[in-house]
Amino acid sequence: MTSMETRRYGTEPSQFVELHGTPGGRGTAILLHGGWWRARHDLHQLDPMAADLVAAGWYVANVEYRRIDGDTGGWPQTLDDVRAAIAAVERPAALPTVAIGHSAGGHLALLAGGALSGVVALAPITDVPRARTEELGEGAAGLFLTGDDPAASPVRQLPIGCPQLVVHGDADVRVPVAHSRDYVAAAKAAGDDVDYVELPGVDHFRLIDPADEPWQSARAWLGQRFS
Question: Mind listing the GO molecular function terms for this protein (predicted)?
């Protein structure tokens, strides 16, 4: 990993960003980790991805945010954190800024993506009430969102208005692939520019390993869209 700078965007312990690389290059990649918004999962999940993107010429902002289970996160403060973190990152206006999120991070990337150049959503949570009804994430969706605010679910905020890549493995048991299939169909019907890659035999976590083949679909899309 290259040299790293930590930048705070608030006073809470979880309100910080780790910056890797140098501003400029191909643009800025905003990384948003998953873990069902739970406090036991943190931004270091995506350290290998950050290193891979820096090597490819991206300036990387790996974002931490308030989570549930002992932290002060939940809806809407977790998304507020993501938006504040993005605003705190100095980015050349002439270069793209792309949010890349996995699982719960994919959910946050899609919700924040309208103000950015693009979104890569890896096995994203797209419908929080649906995840709650299906009892996914050991009840995390019900802790994250206690009511039924449409603004909390990307599928109910379409069109997002920026290019999107959604990648999902059909062997995913954490976030079923049907969620992404339904989201992509709805996004296209709403007029969004969405590419979809479904990977046979791939589970939830292989998508974030930059040494593994599933990540290459995201790398290729970034190269084609933001060369």
Answer: hydrolase activity
Domain boundaries, the chain: 4-226
**Per-residue CA distances from 27 to 156, 186, 205 (Å):** 29, 29, 26
**180-196: b (≥16 Cβ within 10 Å) or e:** bbebbebbeeeebebeb
- In angstroms, the CA 207 to CA 132 distance is 23
Helix (H) or strand (E) holding 199: strand 194-199
pLDDT digits (tens, 9 = 90+) for 34-58: 999 999 999 999 999 999 999 999 9
- The end-to-end CA distance of the chain, in Å, is 23
Q: Which residue positions in the chain have pLDDT lower than 70?
A: 1-2
Secondary structure element (H or E) that encloses residue 220, with its range:
helix 215-225
SS3 131: helix
pLDDT value for 114: 94
Question: What's the confidence (pLDDT) of residue 1?
Answer: 44
CATH superfamily of 4-226: Alpha/Beta hydrolase fold, catalytic domain (3.40.50.1820)
Is-contact 77 26, C-beta < 8 A?
A: no
Instruction: Specify the pTM.
Output: 0.97
d(CA 62, CA 74) in angstroms, rounded, equals 19
